[in-house]
Every structure is written in C-alpha cells, then in structure tokens.
Write a structure and sequence with these properties.
about 130 residues; alpha+beta; six-stranded mixed β-sheet; three-stranded antiparallel β-sheet; 9 strands; about 45% strand
C-alpha cells in the first residue's frame, strides 16, 4: 500500500510541475501597446504593453526581423493562469535604420501593425 501511495504522490508532483512550467511557453495574442519611447540615438525603442484579457500576465517578448519590419511575439508567465512569476510589461527592442514597422502577433489572425516610422519626419507613430 505504501508503494502505491508514494507512486501516486510522485505522479501528482510531476503533473503539477508540468502544469506550472508549461504555461510559460504559451503565446499571448491579446497584447496591445499602451505607450512607447525611442532612445535619443534611435537605436532602441521601449514599448509598454498590457493584455486585453483579464487573466494572466506577460513574461517575455521574442522579436523577429523580416525586411523592414519587426514582428513581436509575447509569452505568458510561469505558474498557471494568473501567476505573476516573472511579470514584465516593458520591453526594449533594438532598431536599425531600415526598421520602419513593428507588428504584434495575433496568432491565427494576421499580425497587427502597432508602430510605424514616418519616413518624412523620421518619427515613430502609434497605429
């Protein structure tokens, strides 16, 4: 009987641990831009984000540069639905002279344009 109880306890610990860690690898597609600022030399842009949903938090951003645009994907925190382990809502993105657009990942929908550099004035504008 002790053998079955200890096996059951180990299985429960593994299941809870898996649920705890796996949530941190989920993409968040309900992220929106609340504010941004560009460094004086124009090499980085700091974005502040929030979630449209009422559950969960953002932990990480992953950026991918494609041609003249940067595509941003966001990831949930570890620890379950409403855990705040590793919460972050401000992220720095490296820019270069050719970058003119920043998109947020919307999952199966098309990505949404959130920032664009006006070519005439060289100023970033929120869309």
């Amino acid at each position: 009987m002790k053998k079955y109880v200890s096996i059951l306890v180990v299985l429960i610990i593994i299941a809870v641990g898996t649920l705890f860690v796996s949530s941190g690898f989920n993409k968040r597609t309900d992220v929106y831009l609340t504010d941004f600022s560009v460094s004086e030399d124009g090499s980085t842009i700091t974005i502040k984000t929030s979630l449209a949903g009422s559950i969960g938090y953002i932990r990480k951003i992953k950026t991918e540069k494609v041609d003249d645009a940067i595509y941003c994907s966001f990831y949930s925190t570890f620890g379950g639905l409403n855990s705040n382990i590793g919460v972050k809502n401000s992220f720095e993105i490296e820019l270069n002279n050719s970058t003119v657009k920043i998109y947020f990942d919307r999952g199966t929908e098309s990505d949404i344009l959130v920032l664009e550099r006006d070519k005439a004035t060289n100023v970033w504008v929120q869309r």
